Task: structure prediction
Amino acid sequence: MFLSLLLLLPLALGLCAFGVSPHSGRILLVSGGAAQLALTLLVWPGGKDLTMRGFFAPAPAGMLVLLVIVFIFFFISCYAVFSMRAAKEADEPIFHGCALIFLGLMTMAALADHPIVLWIAIEATTLASAPLIFLHRSKEALEATWKYVLICSVGIALALLGFFFLSLSLERADLALPLSFSTLATVAPLLDPLWLKAAFLFVLIGMGTKMGLAPMHTWLPDAHSEAPSPASALLSGALLNCAFLAIYHLHHLMRLAGMGDFSGSLLIIFGLFSIFVAGIFLLNQPDYKRMLAYSSVENMGVIALGVGIGGLGVYGAMLHLLHHSLIKSSLFLSSGNMYLGFASKLIAQSNGMSRLLPKTFVTFFAGFLALTGLPPFGLFISELLIMLAAFRERHIVAAVLLVAGLALVITGLTRNVLALSFAPPTRQQPLVAEEMPRILPPAILLLASVALCIWLPPPLREVIIQAVTLLGGVIHG
Result:
């Protein structure tokens, strides 16, 4: 019952939202987000009512991603109601409908146990989220949407080929078993190693495209820049994690099959490359939304690196996933307030935020401090754990490169954010005044990150421990 509700309720509400007034659509959007959050909390973390044999199962990493998705979606939906009304968005029903369908498909991806069900869900998220990117109907939005659809579709096609190779690894082992991640985990040492390696490589490249790993990340800066800020928050805070789940499942199988060094090395290479690519593009980035998008590329690289290193790094990666979603969603919502105030995404035309938009300045600058890995925010803990793991697992070169890459990223972010915050303003007053309903959601998301640094609720901690343990990670020295 709960599985059907979680999968079908947002889809049904999304279809209804297309045909009702904007006011009714706002009610559907917020109530749908609240209902999905409530349903998830009712069955979380065990998820015993979320199983459909062979198709869906409540894996620990999936349950963590599901909780993140529904939590940030609720606050993003609350923000969207007021921001889109302030912007007088003509296509608001399209946003309401597509966002709710997007929520249902991401829920499907988080709970999928069958590789093809996971593939279908992630491919469908591309189609559901494309109208969100094109919502403003500008030439730049059209270009970003086509790039998103084409590049992600090619990536997802490669991932599908990887899942076919996974099926071949089962057939070559002459095992008549259903194709599901939970079943494959029980017979992983018996799978054909050649086809299993090929499966991981293709899934890493294919799903890495959707996750935003460099050099497959090229759709991400354009899409995040052109989408409305609530949609950007969903893409960065929720969708990228769904793509990571596929890579997580394949890496788990590789470890059980005794080939964890192969998959771990590839994750380290792609992770470090993503960090440096993001850092280079951040140094002279004129667009603050593209700045946040490249930061997402960097943070996905940090997650991949932590998983690849293993040990404490896996624990750091899971914490990084959790805190990055909260912090980056908050920053994209704050960037929406900036766009309403300045009518520009260019840093040079959006200066003086501390004077003109003081409340937005507080949330945005706090989010910036969180991104740089300063306490009391969670990225400080996660990045420290990954660095310690790199030294402990004797990945000295990776540790040094991680420090250098993060320094490059912080340099770029600092230059841009200081200009946004303290440079002389380019206008006398903002175009749209600040409203508390548009300030509170990003503030709450940031406070949630701080709160989770101080105290991890036992159910949440248990799920993270289970997800870490499955990859052979540890949570202490």
User: Anything to note?
Assistant: The mean pLDDT is 93. The chain has one domain: 2-470. The radius of gyration is 21 Å. The chain has 19 helices and no strands.
